[in-house]
Amino acid sequence: MIEAELLERAAVISGKKVPTDKWIDVIDPSNALPFARVARCGADQIAEAVEAARQAYETIWRFTNAADRSRVCRRIAEGLRAERSELAHLETLDTGKPISQSLVDIDVAARYFEFYGSAVEGLSGDAILPERDLLAFTLREPYGVCGHIIPWNYPLQVAARTVAPALATGNCCVLKPAEDAPMTSLRLAGIAIEAGLPAGVLNVVPGYGEEAGAALTAHPGVDRLAFTGSREIGEVVMTAAARNIVPVTLELGGKSPHIVLPDFDAERAVPLIVESITEHAGQNCSAGSRLLVHRSVHSELLSALTEAFRSLHIGPGATDPDMGPLISAKQRDRVLGYLAEGRRDCVVSVGGGVPRGAEYADGFYVEPTILDQVTPAHTVFNEEIFGPVLCVSVFDSIEEGVELAEQTTYGLAAGVWTSDVTTAHWLAQRLRAGQIFVNNYSAAGGVELPFGGYKRSGIGIEKGLEALREYTRCKTVAMHTRAHA
Ligand code: ADP
Ligand code: MG
Fold first, then answer.
1. Of 233, 264, 258, 210, residue with least CA distance to 370
2. What integer pLDDT is reported at residue 483 of this predicted model?
3. CA atoms within 13 A on the CB side of 177
4. Which architecture does CATH list for 3-252+460-474?
5. How far is the CA of 204 from the centre of ligand 2 (A)?
């Protein structure tokens, strides 16, 4: 590919394309070739973006009625839908994921703007009457300038998930997309402006984490931070937030279990368990990456899953296979490192390496893999692999199953598979995870469903009405009255 054919995308600050003299190549994971380059923003552009957001907040957005903010958000949703196919194409080029999964991502992103745009109209404070001559009420105010740092796995979905409730509630945003997949976030900035969002309310500044990301988290003009990404960087972001005493939402990793009891419905469970760990090649913080199965149904379920994994079609995202490549050579090598440990310590039921064939030689492909006889002593039981690797462990009693489930430091999601409603309720209450799925998994994206990790999976809530409140702060006004003379 020659240079002239590359897409080129500048940062969007205050509604304008801001040139930088440094660029980052954007790679197509299916062939390792660059297809675009984006601005490599540094501390200067971050400062400019924070200033633009502050300006827009103080002059326009904080004084814009909820009804008008709502209308703009819903118009952004329409704008996303109008470009559904182009955006999905771009997302697939950027992330490698199958085109049908990208199409779902665009639909879900549109839903976030629609949902928060609508919900914000019903947001209000409370009236409190603590004593005779005192009337108090609460106001839900925006924070001001919010900094959002997002990962590369579900770029447009996560951008919308974090930015939509912030914008709807009257905040102005600086969004730092991941260096590995920045394209649709930049297009979102354009769509927002075309939908009537005033300049400076949403600024998008691509760049490297340790440059642009670190500058954003350190900037004293940022009033609130939201980060989705790895646990390691979550710690770094929270430390930076602590220095400026700003609240931070962290959506980090997971090692989410499926707990399968003897009375499970195999016909329903098998395809959903497969999907939960192979969607976007397992690069999903909520991936169902551990299968904890009752000994009496272990071999039946394992052979059904093995067969299902074997029949998965792998290929470039644009051809809409079941599974595309991983995002980068670095991620592929990380996953292959875990697979080497898995091959040594556990039993490989299917997969275990790189798919054979010339068509897979250039892209970052890994086989969908099942590791059996995994125990808490193994690294692959505990650590988030972020690839299409299902780790299988058996239990004999339900208490033992819960104990296995609880044994990692993560607590993002859990799947429960049983026909007994009492058991399902018991497990749902007992498990320490932010989302429990009974006889389903991931609830079709779940825009309306609050989502937030227990334990080291994170802090704070995104999605659902809960997130709308998270982007506002509560002010109390107490007034002396003479209502009772
Ligand atoms: P991965 O290693 O899979 O890329 P990260 O957690 O490193 O996951 O990346 C998630 C997001 O965090 C990306 O947008 C990345 O640029 C950003 N990031 C990485 N390092 C830092 C940092 N030191 N400060 C702020 N943001 C960072
Ligand atoms: Mg990183």
1. 258
2. 59
3. 37
4. 3-Layer(aba) Sandwich (3.40)
5. 19
